[in-house]
């Protein structure tokens, strides 16, 4: 009984504890629900609008990607400049990314890719070092008030100075240096712009490793890059120009302009000559990607525009002919060097006098100390020389236009010019007066009379020559003669579509140099470029139209099979000015140039070119110059053919010749014509 009573008491006690436990459990549940309701109220009522805005906020941004550059062809459709494509590792900078995040990506990427470090600078190393938050924190401990400093630029300078002073980047490992190179490229990119991290020698292993670990490399992608190649040799590379590499990036002198036009800092861009001149056509239109972001994270990419590869250029240059002319000039300079030790090079231009199209620009420069000869086709547009008697055709035409001579009344006495206080000025064949003769304008051109041209200059200046008289000319005679020459392109830029053209050189034009006005009249004072000679000769050949020389023939699209596509733009002849003249006046000059080669006078200067068929008209030039104290000559020549229906102009210039018997100018002209009629145009139907 006692046992039962004890058991009942215990059961009664347990039953009394159950309601308490249930009540406690209910209390806990109640409190949890209350907390949940409170949190919901906090989220929805107090901060609901903020979180809703963040959850739904999105933005659309535009990302651009490069397309393949247009190619370049010669006049026959032969490929001159192509693109070699290669695998590449690229980086598209996220919309919002910190330096420490890019630091991490760079460190991860060098585990799978190796890059060259030859461009790495000390500042690159410092920036990479400070991108590690631990390093920045450690450095800041040594900079007073670093945590409160508001001037970020000042703080960065202090941090940089400290790192340099204590050589904290002196002993970086090879991997760290490679990561520093990658980091520098990433930091320099704009948000959502795509740059190249590696463009050459990307191995299969590197491609596979990067592809496998893209999740650890936000922004890194596998792509392609391209580099210029020259399938038919590099004979016109100096004229075509260059494209910057990914390492070089945008040219420093154009960087702000190009960045404003949408280029990235390490984009390849035409940096010189044709590649630069026609950059807008060659570059194409970048691919456009519409990037949708949310909370600064990219959530969707949609290709808005697939991009358009660059257009192709077709040039007026004939590649085979260009190679031949280049070799002709080079061989003649090398062969002449033995008897002409001061010859610094030679130049030739071949041009269409009806359109202004350039068939060939050839030139070489020669190192006088080593004798080494190098290609220098650009010398045709940027090297100036005193050219000599080639200008005499323009001199005669100017006198005809001014009326000091006429087509029917133009005979003057060839004789040494003797002025008070100066040595006699003579023609090359009449030093003593033993060859005095009466010359018409045409015959004066045939024999290259200096006297005739000087007398024309004196007539133009209002001075009547008598032997022994003091020269009395106004300084305005310089401007008068030069304005006439400039109508033909002598002494002014021709407008050729290659940047870097020189305008020539003018000697002093004051009264103390008044005697030099006579030298100017026969081409022995001012200096001109070979391309100016070509424009000048073309102006005579076509009867007075000064045409802009050009190397572009057309801009063309690309067919689907990669071949040269339809024409988008075709270069048209551009007449810069017209030299006035009647047919009779032009006939005087053209007859004189024909007689230079085919005339009967013993003193004609171009007789060695009479064998060229079809017949050519020409004017040779010999300018008296000096190399140090040694007397030299510039041997030049202008010409066109056929003489009665000009199709082509050939001009040459060879400075600092010391061999008085040299025929380098006329022999070069002959060889170029032979190559032209075989390679560029058939001579059938021409006399």
Automatic annotation (TrEMBL):
One of its GO terms (cellular component) is plasma membrane. It is found in: Cell membrane. Residues 66-301 form the Penicillin-binding protein dimerisation domain. The chain crosses the membrane at residues 20-43. SUPFAM superfamilies: beta-lactamase/transpeptidase-like, Penicillin binding protein dimerisation domain. Residues 346-674 form the Penicillin-binding protein transpeptidase domain. Keywords: Cell membrane, Cell shape, Cell wall biogenesis/degradation, Membrane, Peptidoglycan synthesis, Transmembrane, Transmembrane helix. It comes from the Bacteria. PANTHER family: PEPTIDOGLYCAN D,D-TRANSPEPTIDASE (PTHR30627), PEPTIDOGLYCAN D,D-TRANSPEPTIDASE MRDA (PTHR30627:SF2). Belongs to the transpeptidase family. This is Penicillin-binding protein 2. It comes from Ligilactobacillus animalis.
């Amino acid at each position: 009984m006692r046992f039962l009573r004890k058991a009942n008491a215990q059961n009664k006690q347990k039953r009394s504890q159950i309601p308490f436990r249930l009540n406690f459990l209910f209390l806990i549940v109640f409190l949890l629900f209350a907390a949940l309701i409170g949190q919901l109220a906090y989220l929805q009522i107090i901060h609901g609008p903020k979180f809703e805005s963040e959850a739904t906020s999105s933005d659309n941004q535009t990302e651009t990607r490069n397309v393949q550059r247009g190619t370049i062809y010669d006049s026959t459709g032969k490929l001159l400049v192509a693109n070699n494509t290669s695998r590449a590792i690229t980086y598209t900078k996220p919309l919002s990314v910190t330096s420490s995040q890019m630091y991490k990506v760079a460190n991860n990427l060098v585990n799978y890719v190796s890059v060259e470090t030859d461009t790495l600078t000390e500042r690159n190393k410092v920036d990479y070092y400070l991108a590690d938050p631990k390093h920045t924190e450690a450095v800041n401990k040594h900079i007073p008030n670093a945590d409160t400093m508001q001037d970020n630029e000042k703080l960065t300078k202090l941090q940089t100075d400290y790192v340099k002073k204590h050589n904290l980047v002196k002993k970086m490992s090879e991997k760290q240096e490679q990561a520093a190179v990658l980091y520098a490229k990433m930091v320099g990119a704009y948000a959502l712009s795509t740059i190249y991290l590696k463009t050459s020698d990307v191995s299969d292993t590197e491609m596979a490793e990067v592809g496998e670990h893209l999740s650890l490399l936000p922004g890194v992608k596998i792509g392609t890059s391209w580099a210029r190649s020259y399938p038919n040799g590099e004979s016109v590379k100096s004229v075509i120009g260059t494209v910057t590499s990914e390492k070089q990036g945008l040219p420093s002198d154009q960087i702000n302009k190009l960045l404003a036009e949408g280029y990235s800092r390490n984009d390849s861009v035409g940096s010189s000559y044709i590649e630069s001149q026609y950059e807008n056509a060659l570059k194409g239109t970048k691919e456009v990607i519409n990037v949708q972001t949310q909370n600064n994270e990219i959530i969707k990419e949609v290709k808005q525009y697939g991009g358009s590869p660059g257009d192709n250029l077709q040039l007026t240059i004939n590649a085979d002919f260009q190679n031949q002319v280049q070799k002709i000039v080079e061989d003649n300079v090398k062969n002449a060097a033995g008897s002409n030790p001061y010859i610094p090079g030679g130049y030739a231009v071949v041009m269409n006098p009806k359109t202004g199209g350039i068939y060939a620009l050839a030139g070489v420069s020669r190192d006088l100390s080593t004798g080494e000869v190098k290609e220098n086709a650009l010398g045709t547009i940027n090297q100036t020389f005193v050219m000599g008697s080639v200008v005499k055709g323009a001199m005669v035409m100017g006198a005809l236009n001014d009326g000091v001579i006429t087509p029917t009344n133009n005979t003057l006495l060839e004789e040494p010019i003797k002025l008070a206080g100066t040595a006699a000025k003579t023609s090359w064949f009449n030093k003593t007066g033993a060859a005095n003769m009466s010359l018409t304008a045409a015959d004066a051109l045939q024999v290259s009379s200096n006297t005739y041209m000087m007398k024309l200059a004196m007539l133009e200046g209002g001075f009547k020559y008598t032997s022994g008289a003091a020269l009395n000319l106004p300084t305005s005679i310089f401007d008068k003669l030069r304005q006439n020459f400039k109508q033909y392109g002598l002494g002014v830029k021709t407008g050729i579509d290659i940047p870097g053209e020189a305008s020539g050189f003018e000697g002093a034009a004051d009264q103390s140099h008044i005697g030099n006005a006579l030298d100017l009249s026969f081409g022995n004072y001012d200096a001109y470029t070979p391309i100016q000679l070509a424009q000048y000769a073309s102006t005579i050949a076509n009867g007075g139209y000064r045409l802009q020389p050009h190397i572009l023939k057309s801009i063309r699209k690309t067919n689907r099979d990669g071949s040269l596509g339809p024409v988008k733009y075709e270069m048209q002849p551009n007449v810069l000015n017209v030299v006035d003249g009647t047919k009779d006046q032009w006939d005087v000059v053209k007859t004189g140039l024909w007689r230079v080669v085919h005339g009967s006078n013993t003193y004609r200067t171009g007789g060695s070119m009479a064998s060229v068929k079809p017949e050519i008209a020409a004017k040779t030039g010999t300018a008296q110059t000096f190399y140090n104290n040694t007397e030299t000559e510039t041997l030049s020549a202008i010409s066109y053919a056929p003489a009665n229906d000009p199709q082509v102009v050939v001009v040459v210039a060879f400075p600092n010749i010391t061999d008085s018997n040299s025929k380098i100018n006329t022999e070069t002209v002959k060889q170029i014509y032979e190559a032209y009629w075989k390679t560029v145009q058939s001579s059938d139907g021409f006399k």
